Amino acid sequence: MSLFFFFFFISLLPFLPSSSSLHYPFNYSIHIDCGSLSNSTDVFNTSWLSDRYFTGGSTSVVSEPLHFQHPQEKTLRYFPVSSGKKNCYTIPNLPAGGRYQLRLFTVYDNYDGKSHSPSFDVSVEGNVVFQWRSPWHESISRAGAYSDLFFTIDDDDVADVCFYSIATDSPVIASLEITQIDPASYLVNDSSILVNYGRFSSGSDQWGPGFSNDTDRFGRSWQSDSDFRSKVAGVTTGAHIKAISAMKNVVNVDKAPNYFPLKLYQTAVTVIGEGGEYLEYNLPVDAKLDYLLWFHFAEIDVSVNRAGKRVFEVVVNGENVSRVDIYEKVGSFAAYDWSYVVKNLSDTELNVRLVPVVGAPVICGLENYAIIPPDLKTLPQQVVAMKALKESLRVPDRMGWNGDPCAPTTWDAWEGVTCHPTKNGSLVISQIDLGSQGLKGYISDQIGLLSNLVSLNLSSNSLGGSLPWGLGQKSLVKLDLSNNKFTGSIPDSLASSTLQFVYLNSNELEGLVPEELLSIGVHGGAIDLSGNKGLCGGPTLPDCPLFWNKEGLSTAGKAAIGISCLVFVCVVLFVAYICYKRRQNDYDFGLPHELMSLAAKRNRYQRQKSLMTLEMESQHAKGFIPTYNAT
């Protein structure tokens, strides 16, 4: 190897990617162009899928498409009230147990001609994460806005992104992206959701997916810090902000678990003045939440060549939380990241100051995330039961039966469904009220999984089929299935429940009514079985036919038939035995014609014998007795 090549190779080392960046194991991503009918590829070579995985709604186009740069920003899906107050994108086949970034683009642009930007909420995995309230800021209403967050899927492979109508407003969405990220990234705890409330890169314009060709493995876009930086840089007149750029590559970048990109550390800002000047940022927030601040530093000023030459303090909402000496921590041209959690803010603005101790402060970037604690979720087996009921009852879209039946707890999004929390921190279904909703299906057997159901009202619909055995939970107190078309018998499971009110009138049920069920009316409850011509055995019902029980024979009837069959078999066996014995006593085994000849000879012999006997008797009467001499 030549000396020239050796030095050339050494000079390239800072520019070579780290080993962690050579192999990135999280390669799942999906990009949905909401409202689009076809797949497409944008100018950044991102593949967009046509609209899919939605539960309802309609499509539209922004009113001024030429104002938007990308195709996925021009089409949209909206969810009118007729689609129900809860609609979702249910993304299937995600790697289970993974952590993901969700990125949405939301725009109104007067697509409906009503000049009224809508109010609605957005949830992820049953947690409300975005709240849009009318009127929107004019620039956002016309040009739209990107929003993103990090979330974890615990034990399944499906992600629910749901939209909730407020009043008569129609939620709207233009694009939806999900990107798998390192499961250990940005972890506060395993289940919290981190909602982006501001992410900026210092000393540069906005960059990242959708804005530039610069890559970020997590799909993060970075705003300019000028959007958040205070106009007052310090106390000294004439102080000003200075942007600086790295003269060579920065190391310790693009590494697990957060994979912060190299570009983030290639620019920074500092403050120039006579001394004492600080950098200040004001970040908009919502009160009563905790926030995760993630600071990004790199000493990219070649004049700072030793520890102690640049030292500054980080002050958050007036509290000194850390003293930073970048060179002391990692040296020069190396990334240094540090995070801090702000607890339970009482204000709508978060103030961050970098106050100098020695030299001037410097910063490459800052991220601010609201920490959304996980909301309660419905027990998985009850989610299965409710989805099965949705299919079997043919619940119409207008009732919004999408996503988690009980979450988020701030919404009663499944019309007619009431939930309550349990001691173990889960949600369960306690009441279903779907009377007079035009339902035309049947009751799924999975209803037995609703072990906390107290009241079920499906009256005045057109439901049919038999009543499932799972109906009759120990928790069930009230059951109203009146005015339907149910057939078959009443299951014994209803008799073993704690029912106090039972209304099965005006159906097509038949068979014997369980005695325990009839006792409900005696013990202070109420029961109505009228209008079922096939039911029998109750005080106001006709007597059941002899040996008849429910849809068939009673136990006594079955026993009687069994005994009769046994007697018949015995008689048949006895007759067969007699025939067999008689056949054994028949010694003539000749052929039919031989048997006839033998019978004729036997008859002649008998006649001759009879004649001889008569002749001997006649001779004896005349006194003539023949004498035989012995020889």
TrEMBL record:
The chain crosses the membrane at residues 559-580. GO terms for molecular function: kinase activity. It is found in: Membrane. SUPFAM superfamilies: L domain-like. Keywords: Membrane, Signal, Transmembrane, Transmembrane helix. It is a single-pass membrane protein. This is Leucine-rich repeat receptor-like protein kinase. It comes from Nicotiana attenuata.
